[in-house]
């Protein structure tokens, strides 16, 4: 799964609709910023950390996901797709990048497929917090981040997708996701746009 880091793009390139998250009903999703993905995650780490700080300052809850399998037979289709290269829970590869430093108030949710909603407590967590909007950050832009964003949209959440706090293996894939999500699923934001939350 892991590959070279993708780079970032401004939200302005593909923006069709303009909107800011409402801190009263939003949550930040930090998708799979794990040691396994460090090659692509570390270049965007400053933007992810800045986004986390901005959201905490606006009293927006932060929810981390970790992609990890309990065994090779846990969701075997992914093992087949990635030629057995999967992240096993309990290994260093499955841990969040240490610099992220989740705090006690943060949720950390394990998933074993691309969507953070599938067979996880994420939706129950969002409902308990009164969340109606999600801000998506993390890796990989075109896989777990995009799948989670699309599923959030079809479940009725307003979706905001970060252009500079997401990354993937290839710039073309990153750009394709931004263009597609802006067309049909999500408002695009970046750390500069989110600074308006504190204004």
Automatic annotation (TrEMBL):
It comes from the Eukaryota. Residues 26-192 form the Isochorismatase-like domain. Keywords: Hydrolase. Pfam families: Isochorismatase (PF00857). InterPro entries: Isochorismatase-like_dom (IPR000868), Isochorismatase-like_hydrls (IPR050272), Isochorismatase-like_sf (IPR036380). GO terms for molecular function: hydrolase activity. The keyword Transit peptide does not apply. Belongs to the isochorismatase family. PANTHER family: ISOCHORISMATASE-LIKE DOMAIN-CONTAINING PROTEIN, PEROXYUREIDOACRYLATE/UREIDOACRYLATE AMIDOHYDROLASE-RELATED. This is Nicotinamidase 2-like isoform X3. The gene is LOC111010264.
């Amino acid at each position: 799964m892991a590959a070279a880091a993708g780079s970032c793009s401004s939200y302005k390139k593909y923006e069709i609709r303009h909107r800011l998250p409402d801190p009263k009903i939003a949550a930040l999703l930090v998708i799979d910023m794990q040691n396994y993905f460090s090659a692509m995650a570390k270049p965007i780490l400053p933007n992810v950390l800045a986004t986390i700080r901005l959201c905490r300052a606006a009293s927006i809850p932060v929810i981390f996901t970790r992609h990890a399998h309990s065994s090779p037979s846990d969701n075997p289709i992914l093992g087949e797709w990635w030629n057995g290269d999967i992240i096993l829970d309990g290994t260093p590869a499955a841990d969040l990048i240490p610099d992220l430093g989740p705090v006690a108030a943060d949720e950390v949710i394990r998933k074993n497929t691309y969507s953070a909603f599938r067979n996880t407590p994420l939706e129950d967590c969002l409902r308990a917090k009164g969340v109606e909007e999600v801000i998506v950050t993390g890796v990989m832009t075109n896989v777990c981040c995009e799948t989670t964003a699309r599923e959030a949209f079809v479940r009725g959440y307003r979706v905001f997708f970060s252009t500079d706090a997401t990354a993937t293996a290839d710039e073309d894939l990153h750009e394709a996701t931004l263009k597609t999500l802006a067309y049909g699923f999500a408002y695009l934001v970046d750390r500069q746009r989110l600074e308006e939350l504190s204004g």
